[in-house]
Write a structure and sequence with these properties.
Layout: H1 2-29, H2 34-46, H3 48-58
Helix pairs in contact: 1-2, 2-3
Length: about 60
């Protein structure tokens, strides 16, 4: 039972945190403002899949 909890709740939560931190750091590294980076962090944190797709589409290349 604990193993099921680990795989279906904990691992997606950890992946969500890691992708949110990545989006924040990537926004800072690309020279965006802190406010923009925090907005991307919150977007990807609360809306993981949609937020990451939006960030990948609108980031500067």
């Amino acid at each position: 039972m604990l193993l099921i909890l680990f795989f279906f709740i904990l691992i997606p939560f950890i992946l969500n945190l890691l992708t949110s931190i990545w989006a924040y750091r990537d926004a800072i590294r690309r020279g965006n403002s802190k406010e923009y980076a925090i907005g991307m962090l919150l977007l990807t944190l609360f809306f993981p899949i949609i937020g990451l797709i939006i960030y990948l589409l609108i980031r500067n290349d």
